[in-house]
Amino acid sequence: MSAWLKPKRVDDAAHVDPDEFRRCMREVPGAVAIITCGEPGERTGLTATAVCSLTDAPPTLLVCVNGTASAHPVICRTARFAVNILAEADLAVAGLFAGRTGLKGEDRFDQLTCTQAPDGSPIIEDALASFDCALEAEHRYGTHSVFIGRVLSAATNPRRNPLLYLDGRFGTFAETAANASSR
């Protein structure tokens, strides 16, 4: 039987330089997600890679959102958000919600096809996978909030290549020959 270890307090003088931390994290690939929230007329969203499943009983996701993001106060106020996982074909959508086009808020949604989840958030119809979530908890840490969302509904468009983010660039997944031959 394993026991929980009591965390040790880290001496404030013993830390990793933030620039070095960012350099190291650029080597960690992540799925690209669009976090969306708000009702029509006030919809907003952001491109994120800090998204993961927390548990499947109950189905729950964890997303990290910067406190300065336009979606942050909307998620806090409405207690709802959606996680839309992008496919390779959605590269333009990733750039749109990363602020690369200059469009903001509702104007971004004019560029794509969305449905509004019942009492929920915008769902990007062509996303690889989408999850409509109710906010269960918020934990603020540093510049970000960790939002824990209970998944109320989910949908997928399988057999599409996922969009990934690594070292400041978007890319795709390439199967190894061994994996491809084992299908």
From TrEMBL:
- Which PANTHER family has this protein been placed in? FLAVIN REDUCTASE, FLAVIN-DEPENDENT MONOOXYGENASE, REDUCTASE SUBUNIT HSAB
Per its UniProt record, what InterPro entries does this chain match?
Flavin_Rdtase-like_dom, NADH-dep_flavin_reductase, Split_barrel_FMN-bd
Alphabetically, the GO molecular function entries are: FMN binding; riboflavin reductase (NADPH) activity
Q: SUPFAM superfamilies recorded for this chain?
A: FMN-binding split barrel
Question: Where is each Flavin reductase like domain found?
Answer: 25-172
Which protein is depicted?
Flavin reductase domain protein, FMN-binding protein
Keyword annotations from UniProtKB, A to Z: Oxidoreductase
Tree of life domain: Bacteria
The UniProt family comment states: Belongs to the non-flavoprotein flavin reductase family.
Origin species? Methylobacterium oryzae CBMB20
